[in-house]
Amino acid sequence: MLHAEKIKLAGALLRSGGVIVYPTEAVWGVGCNPQNRDAVNRVLKMKQREWTKGLILIASDLEQLAPYIDVPSRMAWRRASATWPGASTWVFPATDYCPMWISGDRDSVAVRVTAHPVAAALCRAFGGAIVSTSANRSGDPPARSAAQARIALRHGFDLLVPGALGGLDQPTIIRDAANGHILRR
Q1: How far apart are CA 21 and CA 175, in angstroms?
Q2: What are 52-67's pLDDT values in tens digits?
Q3: Full-model pTM
Q4: Cβ distance 159 to 10 under 8 Å?
């Protein structure tokens, strides 16, 4: 199957409640439709992660994030949008559209407009933002290869989309959009 065909298939799987594994900027990710609670629960179960921690959403453009975030100020928007597309994740206040199984026990959501070509193509094929969390069990090191992702998630996903990692040594930095403070290096 050609790469473009896998991307198209992944988009269809995401729309129908599937869970996919794919390369990101630094590690292999696992994702799904953030509005599909059953799909999110599958991801959380594979990772052995509590829903209260929240999940990151990635998008191919700013418009895909708009339903999920409330922008507290022009400065907050400028901070984030100046780094996008790119490998910076920003925490914004969540809108009512953002499900609690995405925001966790917080009133905010972590989001990124990715520059990774495969991850961005997946968002375009799906037609919106998707969940993006590391393909590993909670507490274990993130998967740095497709093989590590398969082992960590015990093949509990529907499709692995091939591709290369984006070259970062560590997962993306996370900052608070309201003040620019670093939450995760």
Answers
A1: 25
A2: 999 999 999 999 999 9
A3: 0.94
A4: yes
Cβ contacts of 61 within 8 Å, gap of 6 or more: 85, 113, 123
Structural contact between residues 146 and 41, judged by C-beta atoms closer than 8 angstroms: no
pLDDT digit string, tens, across residues 102-121: 999 999 999 999 999 999 99
The CATH H-level superfamily of 3-184 is DHBP synthase (3.90.870.10)
Separation of alpha carbons 160 and 10, rounded Å: 9
Beta strand spans in 41-136 (E): 56-59, 88-93, 108-113, 130-131, 133-134
Secondary structure (3-state) at 146: helix
User: Within a 13 Å sphere around the CA of 118, how many CA atoms are in the beta-carbon half?
Assistant: 24
